[in-house]
């Protein structure tokens, strides 16, 4: 596997400047949340760095990967927002030689969440949402809630993201609904 510094060089090349700095902020936020929640710091660092590795790839790369790896064909009905995590994890295996399934699952679930998430997956899902440059209505509340209780943060993000998607007429990936049902009624 690559060292952190080798991964950083690969990410610098794969991403535009703004996105590159976002992943560095997600890494720092993930390390902070990992320390507070007893999560492996090394895995939080690597997962934070690589979570958006595939974000700027053309649609054709994802479509090829879905077909080649025999992923669920329903994925073809969605787009980059859904693909860059779930399908991005396959590109990461192919191209960055990261094979740790805990880290890959954190990448896979960083956009939609999942009904069952490890603490590492929760840390990456939340770090992506609250990294210091995020600026949306409710981000301050999201930071306060997440600092107090990681699982309550997951529920908060899941509820607000689904609300945003519906308000804007976006297609909802079924796993996003499953995540909502598993987390929001329980933690509200
Ligand atoms: O990649 P980032 O911008 O750092 O953040 P992200 O991967 O968490 O989210 C990317 C976008 O995906 C964000 O605008 C919310 C959106 N999203 C989350 N769940 C769904 C979704 N978009 C659609 N269409 N359907 C979903 O279920
Ligand atoms: Fe992302
Ligand atoms: Fe996110
Ligand atoms: Fe991100």
TrEMBL record:
Signal peptide: none annotated. It comes from Limosilactobacillus rudii. It comes from the Bacteria. The keyword Cell division does not apply. Residues 19-133 form the HD domain. SMART domains: HDc (SM00471). This is bis(5'-nucleosyl)-tetraphosphatase (symmetrical). The gene is yqeK. Its EC number is 3.6.1.41. GO terms for molecular function: bis(5'-nucleosyl)-tetraphosphatase (symmetrical) activity; metal ion binding; nucleotide binding. It catalyses: P(1),P(4)-bis(5'-adenosyl) tetraphosphate + H2O = 2 ADP + 2 H(+). It holds the Pfam family HD. Keywords: Hydrolase, Iron, Metal-binding, Nucleotide-binding. The keyword Protein transport does not apply. InterPro entries: Diverse_Catalytic_Enzymes, HD/PDEase_dom, HD_domain, HDIG_dom, YqeK.
